[in-house]
Write a structure and sequence with these properties.
The complex is a heterodimer of chains A (133) and B (378).
Chain A (H helix, E strand, L loop, with lengths): L1 E8 L8 H7 L4 E10 L2 E9 L2 H13 L3 E5 L3 E3 L19 E4 L4 E4 L19 E3 L2
Antiparallel strand pairs in A: 1-3, 1-4, 2-3, 5-8, 6-7
Chain B lengths: L7 E3 H11 L1 H7 L2 E10 L3 E5 L11 E4 L2 E3 L7 E5 L13 H9 L4 E6 L10 E6 L6 E9 L6 E3 L6 E3 L2 E3 L6 E3 L22 E4 L2 E8 L22 E6 L8 E6 L3 E13 L3 H7 L7 E6 L9 E6 H5 L2 E4 L2 E7 L3 H16 L26 H4 L1
Parallel strand pairs in B: 1-2, 10-19, 13-22
Antiparallel strand pairs in B: 2-18, 3-6, 3-9, 4-5, 4-7, 7-8, 9-16, 10-13, 11-12, 14-15, 14-18, 15-16, 17-18, 19-20, 21-22
Classes of the chains: A alpha+beta (133), B alpha+beta (378).
Bound molecules: iron/sulfur cluster (SF4) (2 copies).
One iron/sulfur cluster binds next to loops of chain A.
Chain lengths: 133, 378
């Protein structure tokens, strides 16, 4: 099973080797989707994969280490009404989650492939891509 | 031609028809080809007449939702440019976004100040307007619909934010803005049917070409078929903003560059003769443009290579031995929709075709701006 979580760090929690513990103690695969951390704390978006039981334990561990945890269903959302299908995002998305279908002329967004890197957010002229953190 | 039995095809349908039947037959069978484009069109804006207040005011400074509009025209006329920003330079809300809000039917705050005169005593006003309250609201764009445009890439080590979009470092991507084979002026390379007075689809309404676009530059190198290989022609267009729709008028933001207006334009091209049919048969593999390195901060950048729109549309081009993913900045989806809408309107007799009142001059040249003395400028 896979789940995405947003972590909020206090300054004290920043020095905790949390990703290391998640991997070693809870046998989780950890994919860092986004990180904005400095000495005064920060935010991190992780994708955790592993057994449901391990994910639950891992999240409990994070909470007990003073890290704020909020699960998210999806990291990035597209407002389909705002998208003009211009295609600007297509060449910058590193995972090809956004591709132009020449047949329909539309740009499709595959949420499964999206790693919430955020590169497309400020590249989209009508601001149709939104990161949910 | 005014509806009835006219045979109309979209640009893509016509090209397919020519492939199957040849130019001569297609020229005989088809009367009109419809083209379209939807993209960021800078050099756009709208002018308004707000009506007179009581007591009246001769507005000298005007803001629409905080965005300055130019009021040096008369008492209550003002022009709002699409790229205009407020003092904070908030690019998410520029003139283009205010124009979109108005088209959406929203009310917009109007603030104006004035000196006060004997005939216009009032010195300020703070109120709301909408497309319902103003006398005129007219989209008037001085340069739209470029006939071909450059491809932008970036060889430097940092991301560039440009009017050609986000350019990733180390030739990470390349962007292009022309709609290629469906784009209006690429189907009429010598402006035989597109000229002053041509009726067009503009932002969802019917508008007109009023002049050549600024920077009109027909003398660029062309392919043997006459298709310009560099930015060449453009058009100045006008239309009633009150009739337009948010589907085709959209406020856009180019991060760290500014605001721009997304505009949908469609132009019907009457197939006057075989030569016109040949022009409209042009396909992406016959349209060429040049790739430039936008990290070169000069107006005369070197051409990295020439490419066809077929190559650009394939999603990847090779530059300096590297495979570079490509992005279009104009919407193929919306360009197709516009060609289709225009086709339906012509077939139903709702869209009249006009011959240009006057054709553009092919002698125009595009001059640079140099720092010169008063004498040198004379
Ligand atoms: S850049 Fe934005 S508007 Fe353009 S295709 Fe991508 S999501 Fe849609
Ligand atoms: S957030 Fe990153 S991976 Fe997801 S669609 Fe945007 S560019 Fe692609």
């Amino acid at each position: 099973m896979k789940t995405k979580v947003v972590l909020n760090f206090s300054p004290e929690a920043v020095n905790n080797p949390i990703t290391h513990s998640l991997i070693v103690k809870y046998h989780l695969l950890v994919n860092i989707l986004r990180a904005e951390i400095d000495e005064i704390g920060g935010k991190m978006v992780l994708e955790l994969s592993g057994k449901a039981e391990d994910i639950r334990k891992g999240i409990d561990y994070l909470k007990s280490s003073g890290v704020g945890v909020r699960p998210i269903k999806e990291g990035v959302r597209r407002d389909d009404d705002a998208c003009t299908h211009c295609g600007m995002c297509v060449s910058i998305c590193p995972t090809k989650a956004l591709v132009l279908d020449l047949k329909t002329g539309k740009v499709t967004f595959d949420e499964e492939k999206c790693v919430a890197c955020g590169v497309c957010i400020d590249a989209c002229p009508p601001r149709a891509m939104e990161i949910l953190i | 031609m005014a509806g009835g039995d006219v045979v109309v095809m979209t640009a893509e349908e016509f090209k397919e028809h020519v492939r199957a039947n040849g130019i001569r037959k297609a020229a005989k069978e088809v009367d009109v080809v419809t083209t379209g484009t939807f993209g960021a069109m800078c050099s756009s804006g709208a002018y308004f007449n707000f009506g007179h207040a009581d007591p009246p005011i001769k507005m000298s400074k005007v803001w629409l939702d905080g965005i300055p509009a130019y009021a040096g025209l008369a008492a209550v006329d003002a022009y709002l440019g699409a790229t205009e920003l407020d003092e904070s330079n908030n690019m998410l809300h520029g003139g283009a976004h205010v124009i979109e809000d108005l088209v959406r039917g929203k009310a917009v705050r109007l603030r104006a100040t004035a000196l006060g005169t004997d005939c216009y005593p009032r010195k300020d006003i703070d109120t709301y307007i909408s497309l319902k309250t103003v006398n005129q609201a007219v989209l008037f764009n001085v340069r739209n619909c470029y006939q071909n445009y450059a491809v932008a890439t970036n060889s430097s080590s940092r991301t560039l934010y440009t009017y050609m979009g986000k350019l990733l470092p180390e030739l990470g991507n390349a962007t292009f803005s022309s709609a290629g084979e469906v784009s209006p002026l690429l189907n009429d390379p010598y402006y035989r049917s597109i000229g002053i007075g041509t009726r067009i689809f503009l932002g969802g309404a019917q508008g007109f070409v009023v002049w050549e676009g600024t920077q009109f530059n027909p003398g660029v190198p062309r392919t043997p078929d006459g298709v310009p290989k560099r930015p060449a022609g453009s058009i100045a267009v006008i239309g009633d903003l009150k009739q337009m729709s948010p589907e085709w008028i959209k406020g856009l933001t180019f991060t760290r560059y500014g605001a721009s207006l997304g505009v949908g334009i469609g132009v019907p091209i009457p197939i006057l003769d075989e030569e016109m049919a040949k022009s409209c048969a042009v396909t992406n593999n016959q349209i060429v443009t040049a790739v430039f390195d936008y990290s070169q901060p000069t107006r005369s950048r070197n051409v990295l290579r020439e490419v066809t729109y077929a190559e650009l549309r394939s999603g990847e081009i090779e530059v300096k031995g590297k495979k570079v993913p490509t992005s279009s900045l104009s919407s193929l989806y919306k360009a197709r929709q516009i060609s289709q809408i225009l086709k339906n309107q012509i077939v139903k007799g709702e869209f009249a075709l006009d011959r240009p009142v006057q054709n553009f001059s092919l002698d125009r040249v595009f001059r640079p701006l140099d720092v010169r003395s008063e004498r040198e400028a004379m």
